[in-house]
Amino acid sequence: MKTEIINVGSEILLGDILNTNARYLSSVLNKLGCSIYYHTSVGDNQKRLKKLINLALERSELIVLTGGLGPTLDDITREITSEALEIPLEHNPKIAEEINCYFKERGITMPKNNLRQAKVPRDARILHNSNGTAPGLLIETKNNIIVLLPGPPNELKAVVEESLLPLDLFKPMDSIVSTTIKTYGIGESQLVEKIEDLIQTQSNPTIAPLAKEDGVHIRLTYKGNQQYASHYFSKYKKRIDERLGNYIWGYDNQQLNQLIIDRCAQKKLNLSTVESCTSGAVSSLLTDVSGSSKVFWGGNIVYTDNCKKEFLSLNSDIPNGGVDKDITEQLAGQLYIKSGCDICLAVTGALGPSTPHNNVSVGDVFISTILKGNLKTSKFKFRGSRETIKSRVVYAALFKVLKEINTL
């Protein structure tokens, strides 16, 4: 089913809010076999919205509009959809009563303008909203299905999951199923070179690379009978593994922090960290995992030179503002002595925009690991904003830990 998602609201175009609804709806509808052809955002403008709805009616079968169902004058989606379809709006007493009860239960007098939400296109199916006053609406015409959903994400999800999905609207369609192969240590362009022939010759499943924080993901997407998907996925996973096996670290919903904690538990290893530039972000990710206390000894933040000196019991100055191979190795060594852990990780670096020393450039990073007494240090050079570099350092550190664990 050719599907179009139209997000209504000037706040989206102004960048005041993040459009999470489009992502959520695309994910849900794709799994149901809908082919998402268009994503469009439009402001609270009657002429532009009507023009867009008319265009959608010509080129799409399923049209999903979000937002603009509130009680104020700039909430125009109901009215303009009604105009475009040439279907009159009618007062729905049941909706009016539900809205009144919503306010009464909260001890609030219902504002009169909320009754605008009880006006719906004739013969529209009402999609109950358990989290708000704006019901969703479903309108079926000869050539189209039009769904109107409230804009607030918690209300939209409630309407979709409680009222829309239970309908038999989507049952006859083929499923769209995806699986993901996760890689690290190889750039997107280099990865594409290794599997370019597979990408270009495959139509079902499709093969697409996606650059993410934790490396480059390869998404395989199959459309059809779900029982055949695993056969095709196995076939192409094997071919991709033959070319990229050394870079593959996980699949689908596997998360790096969970994988590290699980591997440590399996191999009866404990782990500790000492961080400077990442200021505890590595240990934070590790302790996000339930049960991490069984393997994670603890984390130290040594952000300033004075803190590093105290941690290392040094009397001399810290060289290069602490962004230094020798200092990073000393931090790892001291942590190994203090914690007695099997794996110790130390991270120093300059995230920018300024640098702690003339000998240091923005993006210079040192990461040291000690695994059962064996010290290894790597120097990295990252580019980007302070936030981007920090994220990349965190994942580089975690992957270095995983690599060491995998040697055992």
TrEMBL record:
<dbReference type="InterPro" id="IPR041424">
    <property type="entry name" value="CinA_KH"/>
</dbReference>
<feature type="domain" description="MoaB/Mog">
    <location>
        <begin position="4"/>
        <end position="171"/>
    </location>
</feature>
<comment type="similarity">
    <text>Belongs to the CinA family.</text>
</comment>
<protein>
    <recommendedName>
        <fullName>Putative competence-damage inducible protein</fullName>
    </recommendedName>
</protein>
<dbReference type="InterPro" id="IPR001453">
    <property type="entry name" value="MoaB/Mog_dom"/>
</dbReference>
<dbReference type="InterPro" id="IPR008135">
    <property type="entry name" value="Competence-induced_CinA"/>
</dbReference>
<dbReference type="InterPro" id="IPR036425">
    <property type="entry name" value="MoaB/Mog-like_dom_sf"/>
</dbReference>
<dbReference type="Pfam" id="PF00994">
    <property type="entry name" value="MoCF_biosynth"/>
</dbReference>
<dbReference type="Pfam" id="PF18146">
    <property type="entry name" value="CinA_KH"/>
</dbReference>
<dbReference type="Pfam" id="PF02464">
    <property type="entry name" value="CinA"/>
</dbReference>
<dbReference type="InterPro" id="IPR008136">
    <property type="entry name" value="CinA_C"/>
</dbReference>
<dbReference type="InterPro" id="IPR050101">
    <property type="entry name" value="CinA"/>
</dbReference>
<dbReference type="InterPro" id="IPR036653">
    <property type="entry name" value="CinA-like_C"/>
</dbReference>
